UniProtKB/TrEMBL annotation, chain A:
A Pfam family reported for this protein in Swiss-Prot or TrEMBL: IBR
Domain RING-type: start-end pairs: 139-359, 143-192
EC number: 2.3.2.31
Start and end residues of each stretch annotated as Disordered: 1-33, 116-135
Family annotation (InterPro entries): Ariadne, ARIH1-like_UBL, E3_UB_ligase_RBR, IBR_dom, TRIAD_supradom, Znf_C3HC4_RING-type, Znf_RING, Znf_RING/FYVE/PHD
Enzyme class: transferase
Name this polypeptide is given: RBR-type E3 ubiquitin transferase
Source organism per UniProt: Dioszegia hungarica
Alphabetized UniProt keyword annotations: Metal-binding, Repeat, Transferase, Ubl conjugation pathway, Zinc, Zinc-finger
Reaction(s) catalysed (UniProt annotation): [E2 ubiquitin-conjugating enzyme]-S-ubiquitinyl-L-cysteine + [acceptor protein]-L-lysine = [E2 ubiquitin-conjugating enzyme]-L-cysteine + [acceptor protein]-N(6)-ubiquitinyl-L-lysine
GO MF entries: ubiquitin protein ligase activity; zinc ion binding
Automatic annotation (TrEMBL), chain B:
Protein's name according to its UniProt entry: Ubiquitin-conjugating enzyme E2 1
E.C. number: 2.3.2.23
Cross-referenced Gene3D superfamilies: DNA helicase RuvA subunit, C-terminal domain, Ubiquitin Conjugating Enzyme
Domain UBC core: 4-151
Entry keyword Iron: no
Organism: Dioszegia hungarica
Entry similarity comment: Belongs to the ubiquitin-conjugating enzyme family.
Lineage, highest ranks first: Eukaryota, Fungi, Dikarya, Basidiomycota, Agaricomycotina
Entry-linked InterPro entries: Ub_conjugating_enzyme (IPR050113), UBA-like_sf (IPR009060), UBA_C_fun (IPR015368), UBC (IPR000608), UBQ-conjugating_AS (IPR023313), UBQ-conjugating_enzyme/RWD (IPR016135)
Keywords: ATP-binding, Nucleotide-binding, Transferase, Ubl conjugation pathway
Annotated PANTHER family: UBIQUITIN-CONJUGATING ENZYME E2
Length: 524, 224
């Protein structure tokens, strides 16, 4: 990690490309996968180049974060000529924005120090000595907190005042600080015990007052606070993962035109913008938040839609959905229909797969208020249904794949194929799942999208991808495990999977570029 | 450290007993030095003047590093005090607590809270609504409560309203800060009086606010 020295720990909060090597962490992990895929599907080129809507980022470990912090503190320490502890406290107060800190500090050092809870420059406490100010000692002293009396001599050794001069005994300081750290989880903002005094208790006296266990906890909390305070850092939200993503290209103000999806070293995606623990491309964070709130508010009305069983529209026998594919065939009467709209599958033929668009006109002749609110609910349900269905299908696809993995192992021996040759099925399932996640969010997008001549193109792309996904999903479900037809199946699935990938790229590319070109407007 | 806690609380009780000027009292209820009752007179020139307010004091294990727990025993009509439970919304009883604050200084802060309500951070939303929308009505209700629950003398508060030293009986409508006309308007329709009072109180059916409330909305609530 530290092989290339200084460059590696470049730490910038401004929009700045320097110091980032996108190949190093973000794409590096996936190269082996991509190579394996290339062998099987010659239509796919090398890993795609960086697109204008992609962000550079790095996956960091806690150790790297600590090193970054130290480096930043050292920089400020030498620039402002203050002790390290003071530099750290100042940086924390200015949310690690060292430019802003320097500006304020050079403008008015006293104000900068005092507002950060530090002693003004002349006070002895800005030096490394946090010990009693000479003015107050030595004379007998009663601690106002525990009401214990201290002799002149004891006052010098057993009591402590910060630069503000508020003196208390060390026992009380320790109990106070330990409580703040261990029960309240505080770190960088622990203040003097005096009522209304905002002087910060810095790391140096704290380390001296508490046991090494508490001191360790305190420094961990400081590090955690560093990650949550710095706008260019975010914890990976996936359970058990302790990595931190660093990205300076997705500040809050950019989130109206960027969807900064990143992949952590744990293998999972997340959104750097909002912390959503998966990709929510192509929808921007703000709309995702609205959608999630709406879904939570309307969950009761929408619940029935997620039910796992439906009746065949022809023979009324119950059909359970066991794969992600929406092309359903009733086991009893062989009737083929679409799971989403329950219409005959034949009508979803190649010419007009119309399952993605809500027909606004169908309800437009209803004029009264009740019909209108009913229509708005129906409109929401139309999109929600498709959103939820793709989420559900992606899960089923993953389960389905697990159950057929055994059969693939059999294939390996009976059809005399190499391990790499049977990977086509796994790759195809991965392709389907990724495409379904994008399709899922595309319905959230469509729900809020203001209609203009650009939205039609969006819906066409959505429909093309959806059709490609359903075709591939159907092939996977029908055929995996059929050892006899393995060569044909492999060819078919590989081709279909390459096509899905292509449609997926087209939809993503066009939609994400659309934000940069201000093509999308939302009705919220 | 529990020695320190006991030492400190005992000293606080002693010091408070010695101080005759502040009019704050802190007494033990039984043998337990960590469960006390504090009391102070209502501040002058407020609706609470002349009343005497008792406060339940619970001292946690972690005192004085964690704030003392206090709530009014005496019922108080005030935006920052729950009219039902006596719970208090005050910053120093929460995040703004400091270990140098004492039981006495906290009771003094409660006394000044009676003097200066903070309606933006209410404990009792109904009372806060009353305070914000109909100040004169609020003051008169708070006075009624002081007389009924805090032994505030009636003659001083009522001024010329009651003649000849006779005490006027305060109605349930007045205690709720509602006009008798509003209450009887709905009681006459056949609703039970306590229900009418509770609904009108919740809807802040008072003063100018009455014109903002549709009568049908009140009826809907009453039928619930
Ligand atoms: Zn002490
Ligand atoms: Zn201080
Ligand atoms: Zn991770
Ligand atoms: Zn996001």
């Amino acid at each position: 990690m530290s092989s290339d020295g200084e460059e590696e720990f470049e730490f910038e909060f401004e929009d700045d490309d320097e110091g980032f090597d996108p190949e190093a962490d973000s794409a590096g992990e996936s190269i082996s996968d991509a190579e394996a895929f290339d062998i099987m599907s010659p239509t796919l080129e090398e890993p795609p180049e960086k697109k204008p809507y992609d962000v550079n980022y790095r996956v960091r470990t806690m150790q790297e974060i600590m090193d970054m912090q130290t480096k930043e503190v050292k920089k400020v320490q030498s620039l402002l000529e203050v002790p390290a502890d003071t530099a750290a406290t100042l940086l924390r107060y200015y949310a690690w924005n060292s430019e802003k800190l320097q500006e304020q500090f050079w403008n008015d050092p006293t104000a900068a120090l005092v507002s950060a809870g530090l002693s003004p420059p002349s006070s002895p406490s800005t030096s490394t000595q946090p010990l009693p100010s000479p003015l107050a000692s030595p004379r007998p002293f009663e601690c106002p907190i525990c009401c214990m009396d201290y002799t002149k001599e004891q006052t010098a050794t057993q009591t402590l005042a910060l630069g503000c001069g508020h003196r208390f005994c060390r026992g009380c300081w320790t109990e106070y600080v330990v409580g703040k750290i261990t029960t309240e989880g505080e770190s960088g903002r622990i203040q003097c015990m005096e009522s209304g005094c905002s002087r910060i208790v810095r790391a140096e006296p704290i380390d001296e007052l508490v046991t090494s266990d508490v001191s360790k906890k305190y420094h961990n909390l400081l590090n955690q606070a560093f990650v949550s305070d710095a706008p260019s850092l975010r914890w990976c939200p996936h359970p058990g993962c302790e990595h931190i993503i660093e990205c300076s290209q997705a500040p809050q103000k950019m989130l109206n035109q960027l969807v900064p999806t990143v992949t952590c070293r744990c293998g999972n995606d997340l959104c750097f913008g909002c912390g959503y623990p998966a990709s929510h491309r192509p929808v921007i964070c703000r709309i995702v938040k609205l959608w999630e709130k709406k879904c939570a508010d309307d969950s009761e009305t929408a619940n029935w839609l997620q039910a796992n069983t439906k009746e065949c529209t022809k023979c009324q026998s119950t059909i359970e959905k066991n794969g992600g594919c929406n092309h359903m065939t009733c086991k009893k009467c062989k009737w083929e229909f679409c799971w989403v709209c329950m219409g005959p599958w034949s009508e979803h033929g190649t010419a007009w797969y119309q399952c993605n668009r809500f027909d606004e006109k169908s309800g437009s002749d209803n004029r009264d208020h009740q019909a209108k609110s009913r229509q708005s609910l129906e409109r929401y349900l139309h999109y929600f249904n498709r959103w939820a269905n793709h989420e559900h299908s992606a899960k089923l696809d993953a389960d389905f794949y697990k159950s057929t993995q055994k059969k693939m192992e059999q294939m390996q021996s009976s059809a005399n194929m190499s391990w790499i040759e049977v990977q086509f099925a796994k790759q195809a399932v991965d392709t389907v799942i990724a495409a379904r996640i994008t399709l899922k969010w595309s319905y959230c997008m469509a729900f809020y999208l203001k209609r203009n001549n650009m939205t039609e193109l969006f819906e066409d792309n959505q429909r093309d991808l959806e059709r490609a996904v359903e075709t591939l999903g159907y092939s996977l479900e029908q055929n995996i495990g059929d050892v006899g037809a393995i060569a044909k199946l492999r060819q078919e699935v590989t081709n279909q999977s390459a096509y899905v990938q292509k449609r997926h790229d087209i939809l993503m590319d066009d939609t994400l570029r659309g934000y940069l070109e201000h093509r999308w407007e939302f009705t919220v | 450290m529990s020695d320190a806690r006991l030492r400190r609380v005992q000293k606080e009780i002693r010091d408070c007993a010695k101080d005759k000027t502040s009019q704050i009292s802190i007494e033990m209820i039984d043998e337990n030095p960590f469960h006390l009752v504090g009391a102070f007179p209502g501040p002058p020139d407020t609706p609470y003047e002349g009343g005497y307010y008792e406060v339940d004091i619970n001292i946690p294990e972690t005192y004085p590093f964690q704030p003392v727990k206090m709530k009014f025993i005496t019922k108080v009509y005030h935006p920052n005090v729950s009219s039902a439970s006596g719970a208090i919304c005050l910053d120093i009883l929460k995040d703004a607590w400091s270990p140098v604050l004492t039981l006495k200084s906290t009771l003094i802060s409660l006394q000044s809270l009676l003097n200066e309500p903070v309606p933006e951070d209410p404990q009792d939303a109904e009372v806060a609504k009353h305070y914000n929308s109909d100040r004169a009505g609020f003051i008169s209700t708070a006075k009624h409560w002081a007389q009924a629950y805090a032994q505030a003398p009636v003659h001083k508060q009522q001024g010329g309203v009651t003649g000849g030293g006779g005490t006027k009986k305060v109605t349930d409508a007045e205690m709720a800060g509602l006009s008798e006309a509003s209450v009887s308007q709905f009681v006459d329709m056949g609703f039970e009086r306590p229900k009418v009072i509770s609904v009108l109180k919740r809807m802040n059916y008072r003063g100018n606010n009455i014109s903002n409330i549709n009568e049908n909305t009140v009826l809907e609530e009453l039928f619930k």
